[in-house]
Amino acid sequence: MPPRIPYAVRALLAVLSGLALWLAFPTHNLWWLAPVAVALLGASTWAVGGRRGFVLGLLAGWAFFVPVLSWSGIYVGKLPWFALATLEALYFALMCAVVGYVGRRLDRGSPWTAYMVIPLAWVVQELARGTTPFGGFPWARLAFSQADSPLANIAQWFGAPGVTFAVAGVGAALMAAAARLRVRWQTSFIIAAALASFVLLCSSAVPSLDGRRVTVGIVQGNVPHPGLDFNAERRAVLDNHVRGTELLAEKAKGDLGERVPEPLSLVVWPENSSDIDPFRNGDAAAQVQRAVTAVGVPVIVGAVLQEPAPDVSNVSLFYTPGGGEPGRYVKNHPVPFAEYIPYRSFFRKFSDKVDLVTKDFTKGKGLGAFRVEAPSGEYWALPTICFEVAYDGLMRDSVTQPGKESSILLVQTNNATFGYTAESEQQFAISRIRAIEHGRSVAHVSTVGVSGFIAPDGSVTGKTGLFTAEQGIGSVVVRSDRTLADQLGPWPEWLAVAFLAALCGAAIASGRGDRVDQSVPARSTKDPVD
Fold first, then answer.
1. Tens of pLDDT along 14-49?
2. How many CB atoms lie within 10 A of CB 194?
3. 518, burial (CB in 10 Å: exposed 0-12, middle 13-18, buried 19+)
4. What share of the chain is helix, strand, coil (3-state, %, to 5)?
5. How far apart are CA 509 and CA 524, in angstroms?
6. What are phi and psi for residue 375, nearest 5 degrees?
7. What is the 3 state secondary structure string of 245-285?
8. Catalytic center residues
9. Are the beta carbons of 400 and 486 closer than 8 angstroms?
């Protein structure tokens, strides 16, 4: 059993764990601190019981989510920011309550089995946080801190949940090694050797880059100024993207060298590049067509449509040089409290900022897929809009659409509402994990940055800066193979739920056994922090 730690020290460890985890994420990018943070939180909450585990987890959650989600309050004030951080921190609190309870019950008899509760609880916590309430908010998951880590390669086998499990597993092993060091240094040495071997294995399992190449362009048009009213000059934003496309067309006519051997086949604009509805505004439609004519290939436009009334739609529109009705993808997962306000009258009592969302965005009902012709053959461009990239199921469903295997992923986003914060880099890191997870190239394009091309191994080319007008042309790999993660689907998460439930059941049974068996002197169950 780990040594007794005073409660004040445990509270300090909990806060330090949250801060360390924050530093693991962009823009600090100290990814190796993520397992250290797990180890610190494990040491803080281990065997303290459910109630104390809850409090310690809440402290760690606040220490992590308040800074990592600071971008959420940049223009709307502190109340929404702290409300979101507190909601997310409550999931940490529940996770640590489970760790504290199970650790107390099982550590006495089967410590190595008990330690498994830590990585299992992290996976289940992120599953719950990513699905509840209102569809969840799966931001700042352990996996999304690991884009530069060897552990990121696990995404191709078990998805983002597998990366989270691995990071938390390393953290639990670090905690176990430290706890046993004073008693048996040989055990600690074995654990360290096993961890090193595991990391080396992950480093060698680089995802495949095989596949034919196509040439794709991205246009980051920029906005007049950052903030919630970035679209107050909607025509200026549209004109920026038209002008950027014309500049890209000039680039494409020149010699792009060996790096881009094939002619341009597609151009992608970001989310909100045309907040003027081109179906209802002839001038906006003419501007879009001007861009399509200039570049001579299909252009995917992020637009806002004034339909279905009284709601609006956040869409990707697929325009072709031949004209005609553009293809359409309607965002499947609008963001609560940003693109629609649930229970508006109730939440208005807490903040009048809810009325900044004047109209609710409707929820799309179908997946998107646009067929693109290229000299080397057709492929499918699979659009994803903004925060949708953080949702496992939606991304997996998009990649596994029947008949659309040869594909690339598009992430169209608008980061103007978050200013010069870490949000853009955090989102770009998620796209890098998705590229590895699904074995697909990703064209990630933002109105203001960061934008760039991501290969199926997570490597990056053509990355842009924040609040700049830039255009990029990249040679990206088109692949059709499905990764093991695609084939397994949500099973790793459900197995984690099942195993965690089994450990909780064993812990409950252990507690009952202690009460029933009065013939054997019981080991003291006094809380080790008392």
1. 999 999 999 999 999 999 999 999 999 999 999 999
2. 12
3. exposed
4. 50, 15, 35
5. 17
6. -55, -35
7. HHHHHHHHHCCCCCCCCCCEEEEECCCCCECCCCCCCHHHH
8. 271, 331, 386
9. yes
